[in-house]
Amino acid sequence: MLNKTLQPNLPVIVPVVVYHGAGRWRVASHFSALFDLQADDCMAKYLPDFGYELENLQAAQEQELRQRAVLSHVKAALWFLKSARNGQQLLQQMQQWHGVLRTLLEQPSGMGAFMTLMRYYMSVSQGTQLQQVQRQLTKVLGPKSREGLMTLAETLRKEGRVEGKAEGKAEGRAEGKAEGRVEGRAEGKAVGKLEGEIRALLTLFEARGWRLTRTQRQKIRMRSDLSVLEQWLRRAAVASCLREVFCS
């Protein structure tokens, strides 16, 4: 029974899906289409039905993203999600995005947000070296960005790109077998990447000015599923509040 003191109307919730995969988006646009039910099925009347707003970055034009009337950190996050996998393409587009990036860096927490985007870029881009990124950013944004990237390089080393390999080799030598060395390196890399995602997520929360409770912080640090952490990181880049990041 509903409490009579509750408001009679529920707030409107608009579902939004941000897609930045390589292929076309092929999922049904309505919730009811995900179920194998016929129109005359006796269970059909119990099935909730709603659509969602699709942010299809795979089909979006880079220029259209740049001209959107949204905050600079949201605009930059959408651009990175769309173009980061193609490292050279994103570097080539930086000159056109220098206005957005400068606006981002001028904000109090802008450097932290920018470093989070660059951390994501370096983890997913193909065929790009940190030195290339440093040269292009220094050219477009000046020496301030270079200082930040030097910090990022050091952070990446600490978070397991080098450390994970060393740990893996040590475990492999202890096993004394080739299989042990392979497994050790793989496990070391996995642990390093997991720690990197956790630190990236916490850094982004801090950059957005969101304060985590002790329970929320523990929930993040105890998470061992890399895909979930990556999902939270993508949500955190575009969410309007902390609650939207952890919603199921």
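[next item in queue]
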Amino acid sequence: MSQPDVVKFSCYQCSQHIRAFREHIGESIMCPSCGTMITVPAVSQFDEKVEELVVQRKFTDEELDLIRQEGAGAYEAFIGGAVSKYWQFALVADLLTKRLSPLQQSVLDLMRRQVIYDREVVNHGPFIKFVNAKAEEFFGILYMLTDRLAGELDRVIYEDNLSQIITFSNQVGVVILRLRKFHDSIYEQPLPGEYPYPELQGIMKSWAPHCWQSIKNVTEELRQLSVRKRNDGSWKAMQMAFAPALLHEFYYHLKFLPEPEPDLFQD
């Protein structure tokens, strides 16, 4: 099978060998090793014999089509150097980073304002129901996120299967979109200004940003491992860090929610 029409070059900062499709000539990309922004040259910088010694993983035409569909950054999976067999670490990092983008836009929106409930509270029932429902929703999302990133990632990352990696990344992406929807809803729902509502709402507003940062930490560690494979205990430890802090405070404040008013129309 003929190899794709690619440009082969190296990072001027760390000498990392990189391959890029010719369609990306002139574009700026991030070096998968040191993070330096470099421009894809029009001409290869080293010959095919040298490159053949460097690149260990060969992609099929079908796999290359899948990579192209994922956008310009995905071809960084063509990792040069002696550790090119760890291409899947870089690709998972790239795909998860893309799927984090909607959540990142939400959690980093510094102009967002909280909707305030500025009327007298006649019935606490709807507010109590909202807090409990949102807590249940988040822990369902957290369970799915942990199952994917602390369970399935181990299996996917060590299997030489591009299709499985993309499927896995899409599944994580669905959970991330649910997490963004949860985060947005916390800001959109007005709650009373009396204790313990502001405390509970403030803690719930911190949950999605915590998960975003935890996933971001995993992707950064995977990207480093893809070019300098070492003991992977550090990124596995990060996988277990999705549970947010202040959970004990949330349940403490939850105890002080007022009792819901009885339904006068109920027998």
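[queue empty]
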